[in-house]
Write a structure and sequence with these properties.
- The relative contact order is 0.22.
- This protein has one domain: Rossmann fold.
- The chain has a five-stranded parallel sheet with strand order 3-2-1-4-5, with helices on both faces.
- It is globular, with a radius of gyration of 14 Å.
- Helix content is 42%, strand content 21%.
- By secondary structure, it is of the alpha/beta class.
- The longest helix is centred in the last third of the chain and has 14 residues, at 102-115.
- Bound molecules: magnesium ion (MG).
- It comes from Vreelandella nanhaiensis.
- GO terms for molecular function: kinase activity.
- This is Polynucleotide kinase.
- Keywords: Kinase, Transferase.
Length: 149
């Protein structure tokens, strides 16, 4: 097993304004193209990026876990790389699961990462419902920003 820290993207590593993206991604019908066009230029949340780099340098595996779609994996990969965020794996929303709540998506992704050999012991995330779900699953989650949306 590989000790790992799970890290969210939007609102955790990437600056995210819920009111601006609400109509694209916070309902059951997603509009990914305008969302990614907007988020491509999202600034890095520096304290979280710094923590992720410290954890990676210490030997932790960094596992990106996001409700962003796997169908648009390249967008997320490119943003992380361009902003020099180290990561070892990336788990994203499966194709055809746009209607599924973020917290349910992430619960399923946690099972997959464990099957793949990762042993997560800490999570960095921002959205209240998702933070509550990680904690209900027995993980310690550090909430890095207000997440009532
Ligand atoms: Mg988030």
């Amino acid at each position: 097993m590989t000790h790992a820290v799970i890290v969210d993207v939007d609102g955790t590593l990437a600056e995210f304004h819920p009111t601006k993206v609400h109509e694209w991604v916070l309902g059951p019908a997603k509009q990914w193209d305008p969302f990614f066009a907007y988020m491509a230029e999202a600034p890095v949340i520096e304290p979280v990026a710094r923590l992720v780099k410290l954890l990676k340098a210490q030997g932790q595996q960094i596992v990106i876990c996001s409700g962003r779609p796997d169908t648009h994996r390249d967008h997320t990969h490119e943003w992380l790389t361009r902003n020099a965020i180290p990561f070892d794996a990336m788990y994203l929303r499966p194709d055809g699961h746009d209607h599924v709540d973020d917290e349910a998506v992430k619960e399923a992704l946690l099972n997959t990462m464990r099957e793949d050999g990762f042993e997560p012991w800490l999570v960095l995330d921002d959205r209240d419902a998702v933070v509550a779900q990680w904690r209900a699953l027995g993980l310690t989650c550090l909430q890095c920003a207000p997440g009532d949306f």
